[in-house]
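Consortium newsletter contribution from the modelling node. Members have asked for a concrete example of what our holo predictions look like. Here is one, prepared for the glutamine complex that several groups have been discussing at recent meetings.
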Amino acid sequence: MLPPLPFDTLTAARAALAAKQTSAVELTKAVLARVDALDPAVKAYVSTYPERALAVAAEVDAGRRTGVLAGLPIAVKDNLCTSFGTTTCSSRMLADFRSPYDATVIQKLEAAGAVIVGKTNLDEFAMGSSTENSALFTSRNPWDTSRVPGGSSGGAAAALAAGLCLGSIGSDTGGSIRQPASLCGLVGLKPTYGRVSRYGLVAFASSLDQVGPFGWTVADAALLLQAMAGNDPRDSTSVRGDVPDYLAELDAPLTGLRVGIAKEYDAAEGVDPQVRAAVAAAVDVYRSLGATVVDVSLPHTRYGIAAYYVIAPCEASSNLARYDGVHYGHRTAEPVDGIIDLVSKSRAEGFGDEVQRRIMVGTYALSKGYGERLYHNALRVRAKIKADFDAAFARCDVIASPTSPTAAFKVGEKSADPLAMYLADVFTVTCNIAGIAGVSLPCGFTAGEKPLPIGLQLLGPAFGEVNLLRAARMYEAATDWHTRRPVLS
Ligand code: GLN
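And here is the predicted structure:
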């Protein structure tokens, strides 16, 4: 029987390291032992770097590496470029891609002393909600391994939920941090667009992509955000100015908090009654803590999915044009008849079905004659969705909703039906469309033999992470969902 981790939150491990109750090497070894024992079933990691991780941990123990994350074993999504190992995006196209440089977030995490254990599985190029679109394998939900961990950052969520790291990093273009956090019982934060550098994050939809953390607790997510946030001259969309201290007042409850409930969310179809009940109960907790619950309206939210599934594919079709087997990526070994044939064979072999579908949709929606009707209309909807949020945040501080309409679904349940999979993003995409901040945190479990986590989403205004995290912490401090762990043997 595998020993449980002595400390499975970053905050607890940090305190234990400071008190010399454990060492970075000891902690890293404990995590690596669990990876050996459990990852064959969970399948969270695409690649691990045990020797490098132990060497980094040894440097921390020797006092040569310091920082807020010193000695803490973490995992990073495999669409973040690392100068070591591979960066596959879980695609055949980049199966053996070795990045010559580190993404800015990787640099910052390591500069803060983090020990990167490995790189985690995702839906190919971050397109999906279950990791079933990974060209490598499907990751499993540690709460029930017949189910998906969510996606696209499913490997990062599964790794943390299974105790194969103490914190992890994902990316969120339309929900890819919040939805897997919800399905795996974790806290997952999508920072405001521009809060964290995208330099070295392999681009999916550049106007929507943002890097963010997973933790067991709000404090852990805040700690990781602290280490990653800030301006980067290499990402012109990252904002200038100082990064607030996200931990300073985290435990101070917000007085006069106004929690907004959007009536349009009640109309959303396909929401599991258990999810609705858990979210309603969470709102009651806020009421009991003295918050005021206010009705707000987000009238254009119902066009969110349609707009997202035009904007994201348009940007993807452009971003992914570089993988042609000449400039970048897999090149066919078949005989070819000229450059067009080389490119088309290489792309047909290198990209999976979902990626090809999005490239085709995006190319179509941008083509002459259709661009105006499709892409430009989607941009108009985008402006309206943003205006809805501006109006709503004049009346409330955070907006509460489910993160995902259902708890974790079975592997294979939705993989044959792209539209059903897209609808799983109904509560998450508008946050990216508007460029605001969002967090998911555990707010209950389904009934049954294998209870599954349910997530509460809180949305906050752009650059409102300090208050958003405080509001999340307020709920967390009044409940104990975040203390539950899946049983794995
Ligand atoms: N599930 C959404 C999609 O398939 C979101 C993905 C993401 O945030 N990377 O596009």
